[in-house]
Amino acid sequence: GNRNQVAASRLEALQLPDGSWSWYKGMSGNRYVTTRIVEMLARLRTMGVSVAPLQGMYEKAVNYLHTQWLDEYRQMKESEKKGDKDRLPGEQSLHYLYICALDGKAPVDEKVNRYFIDKLSGEGKELTIYGKALGAIILQQAGKVAEAKLFMQSLMEYSVVTDEMGRYFDTPKARYSWFSYKIPTEVAAMEAIQRITKDTKAIDEMKRW
To answer: What is the pLDDT of residue 179?
Structure first.
């Protein structure tokens, strides 16, 4: 309890007026850092951990991310007007959609949401394993069940299973994403399996890893 309060007040002291966090004290707000913190809080909430002391902080940060997300949408629409039809949303947008999928109350603009989710449907090949797992959860939540299953199929093709190690992802075959270590990827994949394909055997194999 007390340790959590200390952590909460430290986090609050570092939050900037616009709701963002920065890499270092005194620097301007950073979308990547803010996304990581918000995603962690959203995950804790879905796991039933009370983040009540952080609620105000969380909402401010989500509003900041929403603004950034709308900016990216506007930039993409501008690019399209100039003839660049193939530009894909950045990984931060994917993470914002994932936060929205975990937290039904996060601010979301329906038109922008549809635009990004349609882009995401065609983006499967480009994504990291971590991105595929998040993408599958987002598509499932948006009611695109068939696409979510395709993402899962593609995700599982990267996994290897051995008696000794259980099931894990074969790195030379696929780069890991923005935090290049394996555990978040494995956890995200397990979460996607639990929500979508419900393959309990694969989950047990992953737990062994």
So the answer is: 44
Contact 82, 59 (CB under 8 A): no
Buried/exposed 188-202: b ≥16 CB within 10 Å, e otherwise? bbbbbbebbbeeeeb
Count Cβ atoms within 10 A of the Cβ of residue 132 and give its class: 0-12 exposed, 13-18 middle, 19 or more buried. buried
Highest mean pLDDT among 14-18, 51-55, 190-194: 14-18
Exposed, middle or buried by CB within 10 Å (0-12, 13-18, 19+), for 187? middle
Backbone angles phi, psi at 162, to 5 degrees: -130, 155
Tokens of 175: 């780069």
In sign, the C-alpha dihedral spanning 67, 105, 59, 45 is: negative
Query: Residue 161: which H helix or E strand, with range?
Result: strand 159-162
Q: Which of 56, 58, 57, 61 is nearest to 46 (CA)?
A: 58
Q: Can you read off the two tokens belonging to residue 126?
A: 């480009």
Q: Which two tokens stand for residue 97?
A: 């959609």
> Which pLDDT value is given to residue 24?
86
Average model confidence (pLDDT) across the chain = 83
**Is the pTM of the predicted complex or chain greater than 0.85?**
no
Amino acid identity of residue 26, one-letter, is G
